Each structure stands twice: as structure tokens, then as C-alpha cells.
Amino acid sequence: MRTDRPRAVVAGAGGFIGEALVAALRADGYDVVEVGRASRVTWDDADALRAAIDGANLLVNLAGKSVDCRYTDANRDAILSSRVETTRALHAAVAAASVPPRLWINSSTATIYRHTMDRPNSESTGELGAGFSVDVAKAWEKAFFAGELAATRRVALRLAIVVGDGPATRMLLTLARTGLGGPQHDGWVPPHRRYRGIGDDPTGDRPPWYRTRGRQRFSWVHIDDVLESIRFLVRRDDVAGVVNVAVPEASDNRSLMRSLRSVVGMPVGIPSLRWMLEIAMWALRTEPELILKSRWVVPERLVEAGFRFSRTDLTEALASVERERERKLRRSAGRRTRSARS
Fold first, then answer.
1. For residue 158, what are the β-bridge partners?
2. What would the pLDDT profile of 89-98 be if each residue is shown by its tens digit?
3. Handedness of CA 138, 141, 143, 147 (dihedral sign)
4. Other CB atoms closer than 10 Å to residue 90's CB: what's the count?
5. How far apart are CA 59 and CA 43, in angstroms?
6. What SS3 state is found at 105?
7. For residue 106, pLDDT beyond 60
């Protein structure tokens, strides 16, 4: 059905960020077309994908298997292919469009930078790292920026850890609730190959480790500021290329865990050594890289362009997530009670 409203295409709309973005764009007056496995437009229908993108005003790609999993060989391959292959499919559709979108925003990750505790990584001075997660990010961005798309401005969002009701925040809150909310100390780990490089130009072999003493940096951004940064980039025709999305002042692991304990009301938190985390993360079916890698990222380009972050207090940001979770639990309990009475 034809509409006079501007059209936005959101790939990977079923994820944590995608659901929030679809709601925000619809509130802004967009006619939103979702692309994904369970959407009207699916990845295996190239014709439908091209039709959705042709004439769209905005394309946002957030597709990719969640990294909240163990890095088994199967999961490693799926994490890489789900990002690279979907980005290539969108690239082909944009290239074939008679009226291509003016702006294509593609998700990326601030994990592309090296483990750093000496200085922050900006877009202009940051140093790329090595290993599995870095190789995935580099391959993702390579597929995104490939070739000429003269009519389409491209922006890769190097997202820090997003605070909201998503997998990363839920895992951190779970650690705090279970008493493991003390600082996490990196250190020696028995050799394994889960973090080895991947792709056409793999880097890294053994898992890296550092004497962080719980001082590894923690760059983050609230989901509200992710949405506002996308709105900002839609308005700013002069911004293209890679863009870091993280609050200007990074926290560190000790401060993060102290905030988490405060939010969940846990008075104590046991400090965790690397070997303890390996066991805990095995039980949680995820990887300790999330909290052990020192991510120190600054949003140089956004700040220089005039963007202002609204959520910069980490404790309050985490508390807002916990309050929303509790509201959802109360609503769910209320629905169950009404259902039992009826």
C-alpha cells in the first residue's frame, strides 16, 4: 500500500536495539519495513528486499547473531556470516535500486579497537585490535564500505556496550545478584582457541590476558542515546564513515560493579579472578570477554558535530533498566492473576 510518509527499512528489527528503533521511527512518522527471519521481508527473498529498499529514505542494518553465547566453532561462524552476508545482501539491493536510500546506517562495534588502558580510542587516533571479535568487526565494516554507492551516505556505528533491557545489561545484573558483583581481575587463562582470528585475514591465536586488577575501562551508551544519535545522523548530511557511539567519559570495571551492586541491592560482591570467571561464564553460556576487555572509546565525531548525550550517569542508567524490568514483572504477574480469576 502506498503512503506519503517517509520509508525506513530496518534489518535485524527483532533484536533489543531493533525493537526500540522501530518504535522510535514509527513515532517520528516513518513507514517502517522490517527485514529479518520472522518479518514480511526475509533474507532469502532478494526481490522483496530490493523492492523494500528502492525509494526508502533510510536504511538501518542491525542484523547479526547475538555475541551473548559461547564461542564454539558453529557460533563463531554464525556470528561472522550473519553480519557479513546480510550486509552484502543489503549492499546489492542498494546498488540495484533506481532510487537508493540517501542514508544507510550499519551497526558495528567499539570492540574493533584494541584493549587499551593508556588512552582512549577516537575515530581519528584509535588503534584496531586483534582476535576473533576484532576480525568480525573488520570484516563487517569491509563489507559495508565496499564499492561505490554514490547516492547513499554510509555511516558505521561503532557501538559501545548498550545499557538497556538487552543481553549485556541483563548478564551484568545477574552477576551482581548472584554475589559476583566485585571487580573482575584479568589474568592468566589456560590456552584455548575460542578467541582465535577468523575470516579472510585472521589475527590472534591464544586468548590475550592483562594484569588489569579490575581497572579495565568500560565504555557504554544508553539505548536512548543510541536512538537519538541515529536521529541526529539523519539530520546531519555532513557526517559519514565510522562514528563511535559511547558516552564521553568511560567508567571502569570497579565503578561498574559498584553501580550494579547498588542497583540490585546487593551489599557485597566477591572479586573474581579470571579462572573464576571462566567457570561462571561457562555456566551462563557466554564469554568473559564482555567484562575483561578494556574498552575505552570516545565519541569524537559526534561531539564535534554538536551531539549531546542525555544519559551519562552510569548508576542512574542501570537503575532505569532495573526499574523497567520490575515494571514488566509486575505487569506480567498482574496478567497471570487476572487470567487465573477469569
1. 108, 244
2. 999 999 999 9
3. negative
4. 25
5. 15
6. strand
7. yes
